[in-house]
Amino acid sequence: MIKNINDFKKLNNNMREKNLNLILDSNSYKLAQEDLNLLRSDEMRGVRMLLEITKPELVLEQQNIISTIIVFGGAKIVEDSSAQSKIDEVKNLLEKSPQSIKLKNEFNKLKNLLSMSHYYDSAKEFSKLASINNQDDKCNSHVIVTGGGPGIMEAANRGAFEADCKSIGLNIQLPNEQSPNSFITPGLCFKFNYFALRKIHFVMRSVAAVFFPGGFGTLDELFELLTLRQTGMKSEIPIILFGRKYWNNLINFEFLADFGLIIEEDLKIFKYADTASEAWEIIESYKLSKKN
After folding, report:
1. Residue 178 lies in a domain
2. What pLDDT shows up at residue 55?
3. Which CATH number characterizes residue 195's domain?
4. pTM for this entry
5. Fewest CB within 10 angstroms: 47, 134, 197, 241, which?
6. Which element (helix H / strand E) includes 241?
């Protein structure tokens, strides 16, 4: 109960202070760039896309990244010791449940992945070759760029890391979180929400691309780049399919040409390599041909 004018003034002041705090704490009073609810809204999708294009561009310019080599490949292709450890785990489980069809299938798949572990070593070796031959204090050309995740991506970033050179990771926010591998250069690992914008940053500085065996993601990136080259939307660069046997078993490019779905010239857009040195020689030869 208000007994006198002083009580009324005190109550009024409290109400004003409380209301002012509500004003200051409200989303409407935040600067637009500080209002996360606004930035995450559907209406601001265009703004988020612009930010996702611009942020990596600014950082890469500041770091003087002149050009990149894309390395794609399967996230499940790991070095042989890791692959063998997974096989041993499933083998122990099989001994306890020898009739399990699921475990038998898993065991066979892991053995197949172990047989591909040499690609991890090759990706690491190629990355070392490319990085050592193109990076110094004044120039950062042909910098390795990967999807920033495990497997072949890790191997490529690791090769540059062990050569004491820079490498880039363009990671993607997924429902099943993909953490960046630990070999990317700090300050050159970026997190994307949009696959399309991530692809732009893969391609825009690239002077070569090497595709190791992989699954849907690798195939998606491969056909994206082949299409850009076929249509002339991307300038001519070496596109290398690493592991001729794997790619020939997976895709019959000649079949497409025989049926007239692509022209014979399209088969020259890419080349095959089976060793790190062979892949690097293709890129080196291309560099020399462009100079002459």
Report:
1. yes
2. 96
3. 3.40.50.450
4. 0.89
5. 47
6. strand 239-242
